[in-house]
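Thought: the user wants the 3D structure for the chain below. I'll pass the sequence to the structure tool as-is, report back what it returns, then summarize two notable features.
Action: structure_tool
Action Input:
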Amino acid sequence: IDCAGWLRGTDIRVFAQRILTERSDLDVVVFLNEKGEKMAFVRGQVEPQSFEGLRVEPHKRFTIYDQLHTVGINIPQDKGAACLMTLGKEMIQRDYQQGIFRMRKILEAQKARLVYDDEGLDALRETIEMEEGKSPDYLDWMRFFITKQTMKRLHENYQSMKQRMECRLENRLLRGIVQLSSDGDMVRAQALFRSS
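Observation:
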């Protein structure tokens, strides 16, 4: 589950074929094409086929969720399945939740291994002020995602408030900065912020 976007720019078809070639224990690799359709490479076939209606034992299948398709896509997994999920510096709590819940039974028996790169680790350390040399645990990543989401919302709220204030200022300026004199020929400046 590539929440961090490590596969961005990768041809998912080629990546799926490579996994099937390298993993002799698998019969099928499922991926989502550029249209968002569930597709599958089946061992022994050259071209992918639609995943819908394909019968294969879940433990013989590998599923790729690229970053674009970590929201709203459901591909049932084996009840004891495990996933590898990428974590990145731009992720927020919502991204994490959307990704991890591609594993619909994660709260029951499924497992997840979380992986991150140095860039993500540096962002985490800076954001939550984690000491150098300490390896982050699950709670550190949750603090990071929640902090990033809070910061994003604060920024969005600030931008919205700033836009509303600018709009109000423009309205006042339109009403009060210039007013025609009673004869219509003369223009004179008025107080910028007179009460309305």
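Final Answer: Structure generated. The helical segments are 12-22, 93-100, 118-128, 138-176. The first strand starts at residue 28 and ends at 32.
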